[in-house]
Amino acid sequence: MEESVERRELVIRRAPRFAPFLVGGAVLGFIVAGILVLARPEDPQYTPAAALGFFAMLFGVIGVGLGALLALALDRRSHRRARRGSADEVTGTMR
């Protein structure tokens, strides 16, 4: 049984996952759209469903964009707080 040990230098940081920020921004955009449709006076030219669809798309895209910007800002911050470490990589078979 032969083993080899190799020391590696690592960068350790806590990076955000982007998907929850994008989904969260879209959900918040949809909620804002729903509130806006319920709060505005009804327009006879557009049904409430049509207005909700329009505003949901508009504010959903804006929410996704804001969520992405927040995730990017937190990712950049995690680069500044990164620490260096080392680890031993052991290769070979162990029984």
Short description:
Helix content is 58%, strand content 21%. It is α+β, with helices and mostly antiparallel strands.
Written description of the protein model:
The chain has 95 residues and is of the alpha+beta class. It has a domain at 16-79. The protein is built from two helices and two strands. It has a two-stranded antiparallel ribbon with strand order 1-2. The longest helix is centred in the C-terminal third of the chain and has 33 residues, at 48-80. It is rod-shaped, with a radius of gyration of 24 Å.
Indicate the topology.
Elements: E1 3-12, H1 18-39, H2 48-80, E2 83-92
Oligomeric state of shown chains: single chain
The tally of beta strands, per DSSP, is 2
Proportion of beta-strand residues? 15-25%
Which residues form runs of ≥5 with pLDDT under 50? none
- State the end-to-end CA separation: 8 Å
H and E order: EHHE
Class from secondary-structure proportions: alpha+beta
Helix fraction?
55-70%
Strand order across the largest sheet:
1-2
The total count of helices amounts to 2
Could you tell me the mean pLDDT?
89
Major sheet characteristics: 2 strands, antiparallel
C-alpha Rg (nearest Å): 24 Å
Broad shape: rod-shaped
